[in-house]
Amino acid sequence: MDIQQLKHCKILVIGESCLDVFIRGEVYRLCPEAPAPVFTFMHKTLNPGMAANVSANLSSFEVVHDLVTNKNYEEVTKTRYVDARTNTLFIRVDENDNRIERCRVRKIDFSPYSAVIISDYCKGFLDKEDIEFITKKHPLVFLDTKKRLGEWCKDAFLIKINNTEFENSREFIESDDTMNSKIICTLGPTGCSYGGKIFPVPEVSIKDVSGAGDTFLASLVASFDKTKDLEKSILFANRCSTEVVQKRGVTTPQLSLEEDDSEVCG
Questions:
Q1: Quick check: is 28 in a domain?
Q2: What is the DSSP track for 149-178?
Q3: Is residue 253 one of the residues assigned to a domain?
Q4: Half-sphere exposure of 71 (CA within 13 A, CB side)
Q5: pLDDT value at position 249?
Q6: 203: domain range?
Q7: Cα(224)–Cα(58) distance, rounded to whole angstroms?
Q8: Confidence bin at 118 (pLDDT 50/70/90)
Q9: What Rg, from alpha-carbon coordinates, does the chain have?
Q10: Which residues pair with 183 in a beta bridge?
């Protein structure tokens, strides 16, 4: 099917989710028993994380979508202890990753969706065979995965990875000419690359990169689902991710899909 014929209607997000917990406090001294900081609790914030954060970002754009994820995601936590004054991360504690059950993807009807987002954090919800199955079932699958890339992902429409993930899969990517046309590589404060072109972002004060990749993915797909213009969608995704990294914690952008992004790129 020609992707231009896919009507803007509803997006499916599929992947594992967690609860992002930020515990902020103050540190003024070291523990007398060991060379460790004494952390004094101040306040705690909770946000949906991973695939649920992709969903939250789509909701911020008022995009109609469904989320298929692990039912116990509020038990799967990433707890970050952060200094309230400096925003320094002391430690992250992950719990219950091993309690995520595999998704039954073959029971999903993909026909109602104009696009599918796979948010694969490689914690057992989707295996390679599941992802391959999804990419063969739908022509417009956007894949974000922590797995090393291989033949199983060749039918994805677009694959978003960061620079470290690119290096882990470089041999496979460079061995297949078709893969280069599918890869969007996010480069942190440099922006992102696609098709041999760098899409830069303005220099900003970065407070927190937590969830920025989810924001990039959600805004990219939301824009492309509406416009079918990939470069314009990349520019919009850059704007949205640049906005959220200037805030503390996991947040969603305030930008609208209606906003003009023609001036961004440089």
A1: yes
A2: P-GGGTT-SEEEEEHHHHHHHHHHHHT-HH
A3: no
A4: 3
A5: 86
A6: 3-244
A7: 12
A8: very high
A9: 19
A10: 159
In a domain, 254, yes or no: no
pLDDT digits (tens, 9 = 90+) for 65-87: 999 999 989 999 999 999 999 88
Do the beta carbons of residue 37 and residue 90 sit within 8 Å? yes
Residues in the chain: 266
**Strand extents, DSSP E, the chain:** 11-15, 17-30, 37-50, 65-68, 77-83, 89-95, 115-120, 141-145, 158-162, 183-186, 192-194, 197-199
Q: What's the CA gap between 23 and 39, in Å, rounded?
A: 10
Number of structural domains, the chain?
Answer: 1
CATH number of the CATH domain containing 188: 3.40.1190.20
- Bridge partner residues of 95 (DSSP): 77
Beta bridge partners of 89: 82
pLDDT of residue 184: 96
Alpha carbon distance 11, 114 (integer Å): 6
Considering the chain, what is the average pLDDT of its residues? 91
Quick one: angle between helices 212-227 and 51-60, nearest 10?
A: 50
Q: Is residue 193 part of a domain?
A: yes
